[in-house]
Specification:
There is one protein chain. The chain is 42% helix and 19% strand. The protein is built from eleven helices and eight strands. The protein has an eight-stranded mixed sheet, sandwiched between helices. Helix 3 links the parallel strand 1 and strand 2. The structure holds S-adenosylmethionine. It comes from Euplotes crassus.
Length: 311
């Protein structure tokens, strides 16, 4: 499969966007996206992995749970994201966990570098640490690791965001050893993702201008096409399935707060006047009540597409 030149300017734009969004991401989306992460830890058998690479890990709620409850002894886990804010939250929250007090566990933040010698970094840890965790800034399209150095690769909900997914797929293949397993998840079919599309319907109903900030995030939601792309970079035994990752928002407020701060609608919302914002809010609450309120058993939904593949 042809790879493309990495668009560094676009990358910086995305990094800035995720840096700003990180605190809100932690309080809203992450508690939902753990469902998707645990799908991947399960299908890749990451609990048996010795050298695990997780990319686009966000604020790392699932990574922390993985470390505490699934990661096996005598293993190493490289947790990366392009956003420094996401990485910072991951490390800070990790240091607050009981697991961080375990004398066998150690975390280290690595400086961003074009080349990181994974085995050397691991060997710098004393033998007494049986779970070795590394946090670093890295771009999924251009990983700093040598060829064939991991046995598990995890990417939850970031492949559909990067400008050139083919680059990320090639990198996943490159950094895995023969027989290594990769798991990817991306947004599912648009019609099954009301968590993303509802806000657009509210703008329409309220007769306000709306441009979807993440409209293209559905670009990988065709299962057969994605399987083909994954095979094209060399993976075999490629399996894929759609699954639900239901947001289960506790309240209309939570759903509304997510809608106005998430990348998808943030810009459209912020360009409204105060009066328009109020009108938007009333419309949102009314439509939400009608579709997902106390009188119905309907929930917003968020389908994801999971792919697991072997090198
Ligand atoms: C939707 S979030 C998913 C985060 C986490 N995996 C989860 O499931 O909650 C996408 C993450 O990908 C990161 N990201 C976006 N583009 C990236 C890139 N090119 N390289 C590495 N990370 C990237 C973002 O900073 C963000 O943390």
């Amino acid at each position: 499969m042809e790879t493309k030149e990495v668009d560094h300017e676009r990358m910086r734009f995305l990094r800035d966007k995720f840096n700003v969004w990180a605190p809100m991401y932690e309080t809203t989306v992450e508690k939902v996206s753990i469902q998707s992460s645990f799908n991947l830890y399960s299908v890749t058998r990451a609990n048996k992995g010795s050298k695990i690479c997780e990319v686009g890990a966000g604020c790392g709620l699932s990574a922390r749970l993985f470390i505490s409850y699934l990661m096996k002894d005598d293993s190493s886990y490289f947790v990366s994201d392009i956003s420094d804010e996401m990485n910072k939250i991951f490390v800070q929250r990790f240091l607050d966990t009981d697991t961080a007090l375990d004398p066998n566990v150690k975390i280290e933040s690595l400086e961003e570098s074009e080349s990181i010698d994974v085995d050397k970094e691991i060997s710098r840890f004393s033998d007494r640490f049986s779970k070795r965790i590394f946090s670093l800034r890295a771009n999924n399209e251009f990983l700093p690791f040598p060829d064939g150095c991991f046995d598990v690769y995890i990417s939850t909900l970031s492949l559909m965001i990067v400008p050139n997914p083919e680059n990320q797929l090639s990198e996943a293949y490159r950094v895995l050893e023969e027989g290594g397993i990769a798991g990817f998840s991306v947004w599912g079919r648009k019609e099954n993702c009301t968590m993303m599309t509802f806000v657009g319907e509210v703008f329409k109903e309220a007769q306000l201008d709306y441009t979807s900030g993440s409209g293209s995030s559905f670009k990988l939601s065709d299962k057969d096409a994605l399987v083909k792309d994954v095979k094209k970079v060399g993976f075999k035994d490629v399996k894929a399935y759609y699954t639900m990752t239901n947001p289960g928002f506790a309240s209309v407020e939570e759903s509304y707060n997510y809608a106005i701060t998430a990348a998808d609608a943030k810009l459209s919302y912020e360009s409204c006047t105060e009066e328009q914002k109020q009108h938007f809010k009333t419309t949102f609450y009314n439509m939400y009540e009608e579709r997902y309120g106390d009188s119905t058993s309907e929930m917003m939904n968020w389908e994801t597409l999971v792919v697991v593949a072997k090198k």
